[in-house]
Amino acid sequence: MAYHITKAVIPAAGLGTRFLPATKAIPKEMLPVVDKPAIQYVVEEAVRAGVPDILTITGRSKAALEDHFDRHWELERALEKKGDEKRLKRVRKSNDLGDVHFVRQGEPKGLGHAVLIGKNHVGDEPFAVLLGDDLIDEGDHLLEEMIEAQLKHGGSVVALMEVPAEQINLYGCAEVEQIDGETSGVVRVKGLVEKPSPEEAPSNLAIIGRYVLDPSIFAVLEKTEPGRGGEIQLTDALAERASATGEGAGVIGVVFRGSRYDTGDRLDYLKAVVRLGTRHNEFGSDF
Hints:
The chain has ten helices and 13 strands. The protein is α/β, with parallel strands linked by helices.
C-alpha cells in the first residue's frame, strides 16, 4: 500500500561543539542564517514538500527551539501596538508553519537512536528525516524527489552528494548501481559504510542529511549495536535494509546536485549567510 508521507523527524539534540563558544548557551540550530534560525529553514522545507507533521528530537539546553515555534504573546501585542505589521507577520510565521512537536533524546546515543525515539509518533507509515543543521536551497526540491522515489520503488531513500575523495571520511558512503529505466540521479544502494578512509570508500557519494524511511527501520534500529564513536548509527541500520529482502527492504539513493549548507560547520555557515544574504529581497543588492 502506498502512503502519502505526512510526518517528519528532525534530530536536533547535538551539542554543536564545532561552533563553541557560540553554542555554549545557544543551540546550534538557533544560530541565525541572515534573519531566521537555521532550523526554521528546515521546517519550512518539510512543509513545502507537503510534510507538515514534524517531531523535533531535542536535548538539554534546547528549550530555545520550543520557544521559537511557540506563540510570543507579549512580543506580538507590542508589535500590534506599534502598528509594525511586517515584523508581526515574521514573528507569527514561525509558529504557523506546521504542527511541530518536541521530545527529548535524554542521552546522546547517536542519530539512529534519535530516529528511533520518533517511533511512537510516526507509527507504521514511511516518514522523512531532516537533519537540523543541513540546509537545502529552497530553489531545489530534493525532499520532493525523494518522496517520489519512495512511492515508486518502496523501501527507504537516502540523499547522496558527490564529494571530493579526501572528504569522504567525514560522511557515510554509498556503494550504488544503476536502476534499469531510471535516470542517473536515482540509484540502488548496495551497501553503506560509515566514514570510510578514502582508500576503502566504495564511491565518492556521501549521505547527506535527508532521508525518507520505511517504518521497518525501527525494528532494525532496536537491535543495532553501537558502532563508530560508540553511537547507534543510522547508516548501520540502513546497510542492513539495503541487503535485506521482503516488505520495506531495499534502499534507493537520490543524487543531489543542488546547493546544500552544513550550518554546523563554520565555513559552510558563513557561505550560507553570504549566499542567502545576497539574494534577500530587502537588502540583497546592497549586501
